[in-house]
Amino acid sequence: MKKARVIFFFLIISSKFCNGQFLTDPRAKMGFFEIEMPLIVIDSFETNFSSLIIQSENLRILKEYDKPAGLASFGEKGKGGVVIATLKAKCKLLRLPEVLRIFKISDENQKLQVLVNKALVNPNWFLADVNQIERIEIIKQDAFALYLYSFNKEEQYLNIVTIKN
User: Fold this and answer.
1) What angle (nearest 5°) sits at the alpha carbon of residue 146, between those of residues 96 and 25?
2) Residue 61 — φ and ψ, nearest 5°?
3) pLDDT at 35
4) Residue 134 pLDDT
5) CA-CA-CA-CA torsion for 143, 145, 150, 153, nearest 10 degrees?
6) What is the pTM of this model?
7) Which among 6, 39, 45, 16 has a CA at the least distance from the CA of 147?
8) If you placed Cys at 51, which of 41, 94, 121, 128 could pair as Cys (CB 3.0 to 4.6 Å)?
9) Is 154's pLDDT higher than 70?
10) Which residues contact 142 (CB under 8 A, 6 or more apart)?
């Protein structure tokens, strides 16, 4: 019986790792835990922290909701909490298609999965101050990264590199 438990444990662990790396998608469950990021509402735009590119000093938090009564009106999107914010300074926030047009990314490359500083983000939540983007590059995932986004070593990604402040 002990041997069966050890084999079962090994199978569970090996399904989570591949050569010491996790195969993951931040839009899904990571390991045994589900990550719930707060919904951020900025002047009617909805996003989350990992998909937002803006200088933090330019964001004014107006209200935070983390209790069930306050979250009810936001539905499933708000289950990780909700932050209501506005911009301190005038800057234009753009969705991903607009940013890709500004940086003249081809239609074919616009279909690639999107990374921000080599971290996978949900393109539907992407929101950015274009002045905070240094460049957009086409890359393959790092074979030695802690998290793998695909077992396909040749898969390409659209990596948005932000300005270091």
Assistant:
1) 40
2) -80, 120
3) 63
4) 97
5) -10
6) 0.75
7) 16
8) 121
9) yes
10) 118
Asked if residue 2 has pLDDT above 70, the reply is no
What pLDDT score was predicted for residue 30? 42
* Token representation of residue 144: 């030695």
CB 136, CB 96: distance < 8 Å: no
Handedness of CA 135, 140, 144, 145 (dihedral sign): positive
Element at 7 (helix H, strand E): helix 2-16
Cβ atoms of 162 and 139 closer than 8 Å: no
Q: What is the mean pLDDT of residues 95-112?
A: 97
DSSP letters spanning 94-116 = E-HHHHHHHTT--TTGGGSEEEE
CB 141 within 8 A of CB 110: no
- What is the rounded distance in angstroms from the CA atom of residue 3 to the CA atom of residue 79? 41
Residue (of 139, 135, 95) closest to 120 by Cα position:
139
- State residue 153's pLDDT score: 87
The average pLDDT across 35-53 equals 89
> Which has the closest alpha carbon to 157: 133, 134, 135, 141?
141
Q: Dihedral of the CA atoms 103, 54, 81, 97 (nearest 10)?
A: -10
